């Protein structure tokens, strides 16, 4: 007899490892359980014997890893009786907060830097009907304002300074170990506010402590060159990068992320917008995986460190692709400015000619 088991989100799946009780009303959109895709063409292309897997978090319900944290944060906010949530965001947190607020039947307020979030993220947040407050300042300023206003108004902050966000996001590390049977040697990911690197490390540590796996990865945190406070060793005031998701100069999880670096024996590094965009295009063109620019920072970093031998051949590497490429159609169109679609007559002859021309 076949038993059917519907996947209903990461809180149900990892319930024993998360702060919920039998009475908790779970706010979920079926997040988590994202594919871990082994790259096939890029390792061949670079001529290195490495196993590179990408954890495609862009396939979460709102298109980014934020949903893992948001299911937990909103579940706990509702459990505590909160009627409203608030966040500052470079776009993905706001989209996720808005969706989970709708699901819960509560209100979402989101502060975003005007003109500095990707079009898809703005569109989805509008569709989810959040109260969008655009500010003429960057994410860091928005975050400071959110912290101030939450002191005065009955709203729950759902940025990653909310510890429940980290609890939800640690499940991505569980999924990787559950699937591979071990932790990777290296885990590469983009770093902005540094909540996610903190969350992965927590997840790997919990599994290693309980002997679910025998090893822990070296954690590699990669930033955009114009927004790289961890590489500078100090906060920066005017971050700038094409990867708007990680356009952050004052990371909230500063001390926690340094701790991850030390404990895991890992490192931070930075890559130019050109390197980031090249990695984004490479993933699309050689592997059929379309992530947003910020996410490609993970692959840009991994490829660089593989080429220098800092990540040696024989390594097993996981790169987190934090968000979906569809979120940022404007960058995608710019990336492909030289490959415009051909326009032809709607006739068989013209179609045949167009196909023959490009064979
Ligand atoms: N990648 C994407 C696609 C992101 O949206 C973010 C953060 C990060 C990486 C960095 O993760 O902050 O945990 O180090 N986005 C936040 C937002 C800031 O508002 O959507 P982190």
Describe the structure.
The protein is of the alpha/beta class and 359 residues long. It is 43% helix and 14% strand. It has 15 helices and ten strands. The strands form two sheets. Strands 1-2-10-7-8-9 form a six-stranded mixed beta sheet, with helices on both faces. It has a four-stranded parallel beta sheet with strand order 5-4-3-6. Strand 7, helix 9 (195-209) and strand 8 (218-224) form a beta-alpha-beta unit. The mean pLDDT is 97. The structure holds ligand F0G.
Give the number of helices. 15
**What is the general shape?**
globular
Low-pLDDT residue intervals, each spanning 5 or more residues: none
Number of strand elements: 10
- Profile the largest sheet: 6 strands, mixed
Distinct compounds present: ligand F0G
> How much is the average pLDDT?
97
